[in-house]
Structures are given as structure tokens and as C-alpha cells.
């Protein structure tokens, strides 16, 4: 006996265009005009059209010859150790249901990996080399990318120009100490 088979027509839908292609007509996402205006001259457009924002305090200082290339390299290394030591703030949204509930799984102060232990050791060595005020200035200018004048206000200066100058000078002094610690630059006799 032959069974009657019913044919089921399967309708194949085409997936919609990718959202990026639809919203940007095939172009990659770019910063808004307002973001570029805020950055001023501190962005770079590559050969492919890719835009790289260069408006952190340390990069602006390098572009304006406030710090040298060696000091900039020392600042990048300091930030690298700070970030990989797990000292950067976590990016997360607040849990409104648990406002008064303690988070027992949150950061306890202990390093979670051997890599974090290594970077914390290098970071602590750097902090000892630059001192308390130098470490404060470097953390806020280099790591947290706060502008010089705002850091200068925390140092006690009330004038914008004085605050900028004080923070810039403290940053340069601390970065010079890091250059000595990590032997960055001054390699004339070693070649």
C-alpha cells in the first residue's frame, strides 16, 4: 500500500542586509563630527580611511612636545603594567536589584592570575621609583587619561595655566624616573 505523502513547501527567507551595511551604506563606522571636533587636531586618518583618535593626555603631550618620545614610551609601559595588573575599573552596569547587597565575588584585592602578579610587581616597582605624588599624577594622567589641568587642580593649584604646568612638570619628572628604572633611551654607549 502506498502512503500518500504530503509535500511541504519550505519557504526560504533571505536574511536581511547586515545592519552595518544598511546604516552606513557599506562603509565602516566612523566617529561623529562632534567627536572629531572635540578631538581637534588629535586624530589620525590612515591610508585606508581608518580614523585613530589620539586625544589622551599623554598623546597630546607628545604631539605638543611636552614630553619626549622616551618619556612617552615609559608612560605606555607604566599604563601597560597598570592595566594588566587588573587595576583598571571594570566596565559594567549597576545591578539595581542589589544596591545594598554586598558583592562577595567582586574584586578582593588578590591577583587572579600569575600574569597579574607579574604586572603588579612591575607596577609596584615603578610606584616606588616615582614616589607618592608622581604615582598619583601618572595614574590619573597616563592610566585614567585625565587632562593635565584637572590633575593640577588636585595638586592644589587654582589657576588653569598653573594647574596644567604643575601636572605637566610632575608627569615629566615621574616619567624621567621611569626611564631610568627601565633603561629607556640614552643608549649611545651600548651600540
Largest sheet: number of strands, sense, barrel closure = 2 strands, antiparallel
Helix content: 40-55%
Number of helices: 7
Beta-strand content bin? under 5%
Can you tell me the overall shape?
globular
Tell me the structural class.
Answer: mainly alpha
The low-confidence parts are 1-12, 18-24
What's the β-strand tally? 2
CA(first)-CA(last) distance:
93 Å
Structural topology:
Layout: H1 19-24, H2 33-39, E1 43-45, E2 51-53, H3 57-63, H4 69-84, H5 114-143, H6 148-154, H7 160-182
Antiparallel strand pairs: 1-2
Helix pairs in contact: 4-5, 4-7, 5-7, 6-7
Descriptive key words:
about 190 residues; mainly alpha; two-stranded antiparallel sheet; 7 helices
Describe it.
By secondary structure, the chain is mostly helical. The protein has a domain at 68-89 and 113-185. Helix content is 50%, strand content 3%. The protein has helices at residues 19-24, 33-39, 57-63, 69-84, 114-143, 148-154, 160-182, and strands at residues 43-45, 51-53. Strands 1-2 form a two-stranded antiparallel sheet. α4 packs across α5 (114-143). It is globular and about 45 Å long. The N and C termini lie far apart (93 Å).
